[in-house]
Write a structure and sequence with these properties.
Elements lengths: L8 E2 L1 E2 L15 E9 L6 E2 L17 E6 L3 H6 L1 H14 L5 E6 L9 H17 L3 E3 L9 H4 L5 H7 L10 E4 L7 E7 L2 E8 L5 H12 L5 E6 L28 H7 L7 E6 L9 E7 L5 E7 L21 E8 L3 E8 L11 E5 L21 E2 L10 E8 L3 E8 L5 E10 L2 E8 L6 E9 L9 E9 L2
Parallel strand pairs: 2-4, 3-17, 5-6, 6-7, 10-11, 11-12, 12-14
Antiparallel strand pairs: 1-13, 3-16, 5-15, 8-9, 9-10, 13-14, 15-16, 18-19, 19-22, 20-21, 20-23, 23-24
Helix pairs in contact: 2-3
Length: 470
Amino acid sequence: MQVTCHSENRGHAGVAIFRRSFEPIIAALVIATFSIVKTDAQAGKSYHDTARFTPSLASADSFMIVLFPDIQNMVQYDHARWESMPNWVRDNNSNRNIKAVIGLGDNINEPVDSELNEAVKGWNVIDSTGLPYVVCIGNHDYDSLNSSGSRADTKFNKLFGPSHYGGKYWFGGACPDSTQNYYITFSIQNQQYLILALEFFPRKSVLSWADSVLDCHPEAEVILATHAYLEDQENRISFEYGPQAYKLDNSSNSGDSLWENFIRKNRNIGLVVCGHMVEESYNLEDMVSPDLDGFNVDQLVADYQNFPLNPNGYGLGDGNGDGCMVILEYHPRDSISVNSFSALPVGAAPTPGECVMPWPGSTTSTRIGRNGDAVPRSCSLYQNYPNPFNPSTVITYQLPANCFVTLELIDVLGREIKTLVNEHQDAGKHVVSFNGTNLPSGVYFYRLSAGSLTGQAGTFIETKKLLLMK
């Protein structure tokens, strides 16, 4: 069946949609604020000069994810401002219920030891907290991308490549063809979250790997983090001003093609975050677009590397970034508040901006979960997770119609070990847990057969491999 993507619902500057008022507090400053809320309202932005934001203390069900936009100017010129960001996370991760940190790339201006060491110093603070985190690679983080088009990342890979995360429980894995693409997973209130970090204008082969990762995690709420994707709230970065401008090969995806070839095709991507673009002295802008199934995908660009621009204007004013980070405050199944925040003392300038985006996955005022009740278009069997496993794993599959289903576990000789499902089932997604406590370590297979309601032989049959390691 041919599915046509709905027309995009994008932000319009100057339209006031939503406003919050916060009491001033000495150590906190709002730079820009908006909320992803349970509504169909278009994204909008209104301008003001005085609002201040204080990250709230954790409630019973809320949590925070913190973004570090392009930090290179602070890392090069003003270490105190850069270090104020990870230090604030370290000092507040418990009482604010911070669950993860995402670096949006451009950790340095030049790949020299002085800057690399300073970037590492800050990220080591995050590492010491035990929080899951990703450090995306930006164009300035490569060895010589800005001048040569080469993706060589010798120094960045040594410091922030997959080996850096070895042994961490939340590290999921990396693309075998690249050291710049990997993912992490963590669970909150029985919901799995997956943060997928992709290289600068990711290549076609990388997106094939990323597709396989999401196939293995069909129930995860996915945040895609990459350095360059949005230009502003109305445009994604084109090939001309993206890969072509940096002399990358034709397999590299611009913001436009990343949306078309990957994001809108994967239903469990609810949020895309990026940096890279600078508009005057600040940049915090959003776009909302429906994927192929009509589920809204929230997209956010944040970059304060030149804030504040005017040295004679507000605050300290030397254009290094003022210690600005972005705080995503999750209120599960209700809203996500998005605020820019500096932990520095009051005195720097509040950047104007306020807007609203729909809650991810929602197309009406009633939220439809990204992995909720919509009827799938086809029958699919997903890779079990985790794999390898010991002793338990989960097998997920989806049915486009009511039918008779058989799910069997078989050994390498084709012998049936256990029947996991043998019944009529309704259309939709189904999750089966399997415990291999009584089986020896080794390779096994699981086979899904989905047929008619009469229990006849399946019209859909697929087999996948799983590995039990004790």
